[in-house]
Amino acid sequence: MTRTRCTFVYDGLPIEADAGQLLPDVLDAQGIALPHVCYHPSLGPLQTCDTCWVEIDGELVRGCTVAARDGLVVAARGAQAAAAREEGMDRLLAKHELYCTLCENNTGDCTLHNSFADMDIAIQRYRFERKPYDKDESSPFYTYDPDQCILCGRCVEACQNVEVNETLSIDYQSEHPRVLWDGGRPIDESSCVHCGHCVTVCPCNALMEKTMQPDAGPLTAMPQSLKRPLIDLVKDLENTIGAPPITAVSKMDMHWRQPEIRRTKTVCTYCGVGCAFEMWTRDRHILKVQPVVDAPANGISTCIKGRFAWDFVNSDKRLTTPLVRENGAFREASWDEALDLVARRLLAIRNEHGPDSIGFIGSSKASNEEAYLTQKIARLVIGTNSVDNSSRYCQNPATKGLFRTVGYGGDAGSIRDIESAALVVLVGSNLAENHPVIASRVKAAKKLRGQKLIVADVRRHEMARRADLFLRPNSGSDTVWALAIARYIFDHGLEDREFLARHVNKVEEFRASLAPFTLDFAEEVTGIPQAQLVEAAEMIARAETVCLLWAMGVTQHSHGSDISTALSNLLLVTGNYGKPGTGGYPMRGHNNVQGASDFGCLKNMYPGYEKVEEPGNREKWAKAWGVAPEALSDHVGLDNYTMVLGAGEGKVRAMFIIGEETAVSDSHASHTQDAFRKLDFMVVQDIVMSRTAEFADVVLPAAPSVEKEGTFTNTERRIQRFYRVLEPLGDSRPDWEILTDLARRMGHDWGYTHPSQIMDEVAGIADMFAGVSYERLEGWKSLQWPVAKDGTDTPLLYTDGFHTEDGKATFHPLEWKPPEEAPDAEYDLLLDNGRLLEHFQSTNQTGPGGRIDSQVPAWFVEVGSDLAAERGIEDGTWLRVTSRRDSVEVRAVVTDRVQGRTLYMPIHHVKPGMNQLTGPHHDPDVDTPAYKETAVRIEVLPRPKGEPALPYNNYRYGQRTPNGGTDAGAKWARPDYVEPPATLAHPERM
């Protein structure tokens, strides 16, 4: 976007800026101090703090509302403006007790402290008045202190219009206003999802992380019995000597603290959004996660996991030394012993049984560089292409659908494109829980800019409740409604004819293939009324731009590749590729599941998606690695699914698994575990003693992302650097160091001393990453692949054609194939399953510490209220859920999120849990298990109910209070409010 520059005058100084840029941002960039407390660049002008007054043409104006333009003249030094600003600050201090030297928030980022210090106010004019409310400490993650709250409304604006959880409000008309959760509930009994937005934007210590309390400063940890009298003494002293000496001490304290607190940029280790933020630490204590405006994917947004779920880093469950199995039990070993044993056994098995007798599973939570080394050991050292990652369990069908139609196996654009689309279509994606920061962008676009939303899902989750149109198809039938909509669009002349003629192959062949997909047929198969199908078709066809997002509700079916293909076909019909605000977006589940595939942890692809069967690629990689082409395998290897099958059949004799809980995550878990028991040798490299590690012969202690350096690639193909926050715990090591050392012991001395060298090697070979370097990724910079050699990246794909031989997309005709497993008379229900907002996978990361567990402590199964009434089921009723494989016993949660003969079960908590029930059926195109196709029956067990399985204080029971955000007008409308510099009788109330 082209920006127009302008010049204006501020206190006689000419200043150049972007036209329309707000005054606080312009002055901050110039290093010019204009006090402002309620303004935040991510929130805009709230106009509640009254500390930024300036004069324009002799009239007082709040500076946060002033936009740069040619000819503008701003005066801030005049007596009237200065008096108004000081009055505004005095009013804030009437609501906030300044005791900065004893405050945990005096770390350099307290907006209120810094503004007060810059103003050099002689003495506090209004006496601080305590409010008639207690500090809210109900949340496990943060506190709210009304006595420190200045009622700026930043938190309300962030909650209502950035996160759009719509929990917070301020009733400015009450006698003593305060921030309210659900209109007045305790934090932990409200709809608060603990995303931390409110804490991030709070300009003082009213909202603060519990991990900051009380150890953030040298004097903050003193007991309250000493702290309170000391505060009173200082406040009395301030009344005699004035504020400046006290402020000077607090400024010194701030500067004393800062060298002790390290602020390190890192990238989240949970979902695929790729949130980046600073992590604040003192020694090994993680004080807090602090989002920043410059983070490319998330800005100031976070979720409960990214903000607060880091207790695992210092957990006593961490592995800190290698373990070797001896006489059926593990014993500690040195690194030399463990790695020598691994090298010796793997080489022996390769030599005796061949390279393909060994399988490697790389980690979707480890770095790109570590994924690269995993496949390099497999291909170069062992000589097998049997290497895979957890994308096999979730995203390979989406990638297949994109490869079939448009050519690249990744999101078509960026999160910004999703935000800017006229219409967003969510299919099989519980976006608000699985990718909450992207969900907040969609919710904000809908609320603030009128974006339209269609949701197709078997569950009525939050995004479905917010949708303009909610489609509830029968499970696994998405191919049918997508193709029926495509036919409707063709039949009614609503297709993008110019786009199809210029950019797409097989148009007529595809159109002919749609003949069976009538609205009658679609309604019969999907259960969606024809009127809704027509409404969806009209919305999609007539929207100026469409982004279509899908996730495991699509891909974890026996024909997930076909569903993904049908969705991409639909986008092509309407011309929704290659321009801003369009495209297909398969939401990646793990933080680096995209990168693990990009960097070669796939059975059929070298890094950069270069096919292993093509002789030219084989020669290229062999030359780069310094070996003859014959040293590299020329055939596709085994994937996760076929490795386990091979282990059960005795064909795979050894496996090396890095950072994956395969014993729990694989479908038909009992079969997987039986297969592991048959292996001759198994190595697991992880940060905890996982269920998978229990089957290993050698366990190698790895380091999590905060204890190493590297890069991750998020769902929008964005490559970002993360930096070492802490030293590795105990004798654990980063995965790349372990793999480099292991390769050396197997005769390949690569000599890497830093991950940047690994990235340089990849960039020198794989065309997709030609311009990627650590220098170009420094700090908050990022690159979205493909990246040209000069560093030019590609935020939006297909603007110059599609990634195919002729530059055109290709329609892929499909036939309707029903699910491989469906309910019948004996197993009469369908068990849907998926993630929860609070937890991640097997809880190896979210479980330690107990704080996340307090929100969802127990496993459960959701039962629709209609089915519950039919079968006498209540909240907490114990049920036996039985599939064609096994049974589990779990308590019920009665809800309207599911209905009819569909149940829903989280995939977390119990191990192996959900996958005791799932079966071996899978997508034949990519071997992804059909987790979502599990037929079950239920039996009510005669047991006392006990506590509810989903505690009633959980946010899902909350009652949100939507509003337009911070309303300064409501404050100004109070009868006792007057604009500064006039004084007030009760400044503490507004």
From TrEMBL:
Pfam short name (any one): Fer2_4
Residues covered by the 2Fe-2S ferredoxin-type domain: 4-80
GO aspect biological process, one term: formate metabolic process
Ranges for domain 4Fe-4S His(Cys)3-ligated-type: 80-120
GO molecular function per UniProt: 2 iron, 2 sulfur cluster binding; 4 iron, 4 sulfur cluster binding; formate dehydrogenase (NAD+) activity; metal ion binding; molybdopterin cofactor binding; NADH dehydrogenase activity
Domain annotation 4Fe-4S Mo/W bis-MGD-type: ranges: 261-317
Cofactor(s) recorded in Swiss-Prot or TrEMBL: Mo-bis(molybdopterin guanine dinucleotide); [4Fe-4S] cluster
Keyword entries, A-Z: 2Fe-2S, 4Fe-4S, Iron, Iron-sulfur, Metal-binding, Molybdenum, Oxidoreductase, Repeat
Keyword Iron-sulfur in annotation: yes
GO terms for cellular component: membrane; oxidoreductase complex
Residue ranges constituting the 4Fe-4S ferredoxin-type domain according to the UniProt record: 140-167, 183-212
Family (UniProt): Belongs to the complex I 75 kDa subunit family.
Protein name: Formate dehydrogenase subunit alpha
Organism whose genome encodes this protein: Coralloluteibacterium stylophorae
Recorded name of the encoding gene: fdhF
